[in-house]
Design goal:
228 residues, 6-stranded parallel β-sheet, globular, alpha/beta
Length: 228
């Protein structure tokens, strides 16, 4: 019998390696302020909490801070630049397509729950031809709340036509583990994403180091759920 359920993915650092284009956009706005570029390795850890927080972290890395109005201005500039270059270098993580094919054959459907803006998420996924695989794409502005607030995950699962009892979260950082725990669903952590706290320390239910390991991790959680 085929498995059924909804697998809900984080986007940045989980489905897609978006760091190159996000950091390019960050350095674009920093350069306009006369500030030096932020190193890629340092900035990667700041990705995942939205554009505004990424800019704040970028400024912090340079020992700078700005008032709310200036951050709002920089955020608007960031989004404009990022939208125009959203898929210049961003690519799905290796093994993703094969993993989705296998899980789809087992009856799973897929959704995205991200702290990225919904329209930017849809634009990126469309350019990478991943949107056709997803039954729901929800961002921080879709329901007015962001991860780890469980409302965003519950509503994403509902929009995807699923039930929490058959849902699994996949993510790379604290907000993903937190939102899954608060919504009461299992979570798979990926080790190749963006986080300043190693994902293993957050104790997800399963941990994978490559997307080829995802189908096995999903199956083990599904079996555990049926046994329990």
């Amino acid at each position: 019998m085929a498995d059924t359920g909804i697998i809900v993915f984080d986007l940045d650092g989980t489905l897609v390696d978006t760091a190159p284009d996000l950091i390019n956009a960050l350095n674009h706005v920093l350069n306009r302020e006369g500030l030096p570029a932020v190193p890629v390795d340092s900035a990667r850890k700041a990705i995942g909490a939205g554009a505004r927080r990424l800019i704040e972290r970028g400024l912090e890395l340079e020992g700078r801070s700005m008032g709310p109005d200036d951050i709002t201005r920089l955020t608007a500039d960031f989004i404009d630049h990022y939208a125009a270059h959203i898929a210049d270098a961003s690519r799905p993580f290796e093994g993703l397509e094969a993993a989705l094919d296998e899980l789809s054959e087992r009856g799973y459907r897929f959704a995205v729950c991200t702290n990225k803006l919904e329209w930017l998420s849809k634009l990126l996924l469309e350019k990478l031809d991943l949107n056709r695989r997803l039954v729901a794409i929800c961002g921080a502005d879709t329901f007015g709340v962001a991860k780890p607030d469980p409302v965003i995950l519950r509503q994403t699962v509902a929009r995807a036509g699923g039930q929490l009892s058959g849902a699994i979260m996949v993510g790379d950082a604290g907000p993903d583990v937190g939102v899954a725990r608060r919504a009461g669903i299992p979570v798979i952590g990926v080790e190749f994403g963006y986080t300043d706290v190693p994902i293993a320390e957050l104790k997800p239910d399963r941990l994978i180091g490559h997307m080829r390991e995802l189908p096995k991790a999903v199956r083990s959680l599904a079996v555990t759920s049926k046994v329990s």
